[in-house]
Amino acid sequence: MENDQDIQVKEALPEYKKLYTYADYITWGDDERYEIIDGIPYKMSAPTTHHQSISVKLTVELYGFLKNKSCKVFHAPYDVRLNADTYDNIIVQPDIVIICDHTKITEACCVGAPDMVIEILSPSTESHDKKLKINKYLQAGIREYWIIDPVGKSLTVYLLEEMYEVTHVYTAAEKVSVQILPGCSIDLQEVFEE
Q1: What is the CATH number for 181?
Q2: I need a labelling partner for 63 at 20 to 30 A (CA). Which of 55, 76, 115, 160 fits?
C-alpha cells in the first residue's frame, strides 16, 4: 500500500520507478530538492527562517574555527553520496557537513561519509532525521552527528565511538564541544537566539 510520501514522489518525478541511484538523481534538475535513501526519493521542503538563522550561525562559527585548518565545512544544499562505492543509492543533503578527508570532496559533492553532520529539525523532517537518516549516517561511518531542535531549543549529539548511543542532550544555556574538532566550542544560547 502506498503512503502519502510515495504518492508525492510519484507525482513529482517524471518517470517513477521503485529505486533510484545517483545517476538518476543528477538528471532531475534543481527545481525541487530530493534526498534518496535506499533508492527511494524523499522530497525536501524549504527551510523556515529560524532554521536558516541557526544554520548560518553554526556555519559561520565552524568556518571561523576551521580557517587555515585541514577540515572544511559545507552547508545545504550540498550533496553527500553516503554509499557511492557500492549501490550509490543514498544521497542526502544535510544542513551542515564537516569533511576532513579531501579525497572525498569533488566539484559536485561529498563522495563517502563526512566526519560530522548537523541536521536542524523541521516539522516535516523530524521523523526522517531522527530515525531513518541517523542509522544511515552512523552505518556509513560518520563520527559525530548533531540533531538540533529549534522548537525545543536542544541539541542531541551522537558519537560513533560510543556505539551510536546518545552522548548528551544539551539545552540552549550550554556550550558544546565539537568532539571531532578539539578546541572548538559552540555556544547554544547564541545559536538559538532569534
Answers
A1: 3.90.1570.10
A2: 160
> pLDDT (tens digit, 9 = 90+) per residue, 152-182?
999 999 988 755 567 799 999 999 999 999 9
Report the distance separating Cα 51 and Cα 56, nearest Å.
Answer: 9
3-state secondary structure of 94: coil
Going by their DSSP bridges, the two strands 116-120 and 96-99 should be labelled as antiparallel
Helix (H, G, I), strand (E, B) or coil at 53: helix
Domain count along the chain: 1
Edge to edge, the sheet with strand 91-92 lists 40-43, 34-37, 91-92, 79-81, 109-111
Does 71 reside within a domain?
Answer: yes
Residue 64 lies in a domain: yes
| Entry field: residues in the chain | 194
Domain limits for position 160: 48-192
Separation between Cα atoms, residue 149 and residue 186, nearest integer Å: 15
Strands 116-120, 154-159: parallel, antiparallel or unpaired by DSSP?
unpaired
Q: Which residue has the cell 517524471?
A: 14
> How far is residue 187's CA from residue 192's CA, in Å, rounded to a whole number?
9
Query: Within a domain: residue 30?
Result: no
**165 within a domain of the structure (yes/no):** yes
Copy the grid coordinates of residue 97. 557537513
| Chain segment 39-61, per-residue pLDDT in tens | 999 989 889 999 999 999 999 99
Residue 190 is classified by DSSP as: H
